[in-house]
């Protein structure tokens, strides 16, 4: 399996990190998880291209995870692609309908399949996926792909999510802010380190990074490392990880 961070940023731009998007590829299958602002460009830069993306899996409906959905639809339509499947938590159908209600000329341009999923097991784009409800300001699902890859979506750090991720070769986890930012609905390095303590995880990538984290990476890693002694790194846009 190959996991590519298309966007490791968040709702406030850093200039380097686009909004959330992760590409999951295995045996010729390709799935885009989240589609925030900039992801359409990163898809092109990655060499995969928007033509290849026929399924998008959404963690939740915040703008930094869905902003490029309509631009992706339009690019695919212009390229002569006819389908797009959009899978996400409850409310995804209404979201897509409402987006198309605002941009009426996009209605009917693609054959859209929209599917809502709940915590538990399901299949998407040929991948067997487990979903787990996170702690965030909107309903949000974390996704796990077998023993290979887990993505937290947006979430506070908590034991249930750490349990869900345990045993993954790769975990990409929201780590939006350094410790001195007073935050809810996202973790701080300290809370993440405490929840990951003692867990068996191959490698952790920190993502969903706000500008507040710039220049603070070393102290964030130290804060996590005070509780969790595993391999922790920062995600970067267009970074690809191969995982067996
Ligand atoms: Zn969010
Ligand atoms: Zn977000």
TrEMBL record:
GO MF term list: 3'-tRNA processing endoribonuclease activity
Keywords: Hydrolase
Residues of the Metallo-beta-lactamase domain: 18-208
UniProt keyword Hydrolase present: yes
InterPro entries: AtsA-like_MBL-fold (IPR044094), Metallo-B-lactamas (IPR001279), RibonucZ/Hydroxyglut_hydro (IPR036866)
Keyword Methyltransferase belongs to the record: no
Protein name (Swiss-Prot/TrEMBL): MBL fold metallo-hydrolase
Native source organism of the sequence: Natronorubrum halalkaliphilum
